[in-house]
């Protein structure tokens, strides 16, 4: 679908003859982009980009155009779903290419009233890139609150459940960490504007955008370290619990070891053992065992082992 940017995103058909001063936006799927690429300056480069599998965000500055790809994590399910977007921008002609699955969502974003008031394709392109990180500060704050809740309720959450939650968040944060790093590379190239494709004032605008992404990048790094600390705290609690269990088992084993020695000793049943025939031998042995157990308990309590 085609729209005229400088006429409040007025929709026009493909057959409509537009004024040379009109700035055109096209939102297409891959098949439509291949068909409509015949009159473009860099048709070969665009077709090459369409043939490639989108695996990361990148941008290519050509003398008279800008070509790029975006691999955007889906904020609902970032680890299992991504949004693949390609763009081609030559003077007064911006093409946004999305897969058929997300094309309607992309149209809804670009046809929003916040974009309708823009009458300049350079500004429209800039706002489109800026929309990639809109709300991400709040989005990362939600991760921070979730991690803080995990830390506070660590004693109430089963170790296995906590480990799964922290691992999931760490994997998602790693994904966003890589995503912001790729955006930083993109915006750095745009701010350098080595082909002078953009007006000079946009260099500072892209530099400002680069600063915002840099802060998001640092924030994800901090959150990843926070998640790692929670994981280490959880492992420390597990180790402490295991140490307590082993200490108790060791003390119990130590207490009953002398009794095992006594029972093993008198289990030999030699004929010349006078204790076996003594009328009070059984009760004497009980008293000796009790004294040994009580003495060990008193000793262990003094040492702080019980």
TrEMBL record:
Subcellular location: Cell membrane
Catalytic activity: Mg(2+)(in) = Mg(2+)(out)
Function text: Mediates influx of magnesium ions. Alternates between open and closed states. Activated by low cytoplasmic Mg(2+) levels. Inactive when cytoplasmic Mg(2+) levels are high.
Membrane topology designation: Multi-pass membrane protein
UniProt family annotation: Belongs to the CorA metal ion transporter (MIT) (TC 1.A.35) family.
GO molecular function, one term: cobalt ion transmembrane transporter activity
Keywords (A to Z) from UniProt: Cell membrane, Ion transport, Magnesium, Membrane, Transmembrane, Transmembrane helix, Transport
Protein name: Magnesium transporter CorA
Coiled-coil regions listed in the entry: none
GO cellular component: plasma membrane
Chief location bin: membrane
Transmembrane segments: 248-268, 280-300
Annotated Pfam families: CorA
InterPro entries the UniProt entry points to: CorA_cytoplasmic_dom, CorA_TM1_TM2, MgTranspt_CorA/ZnTranspt_ZntB
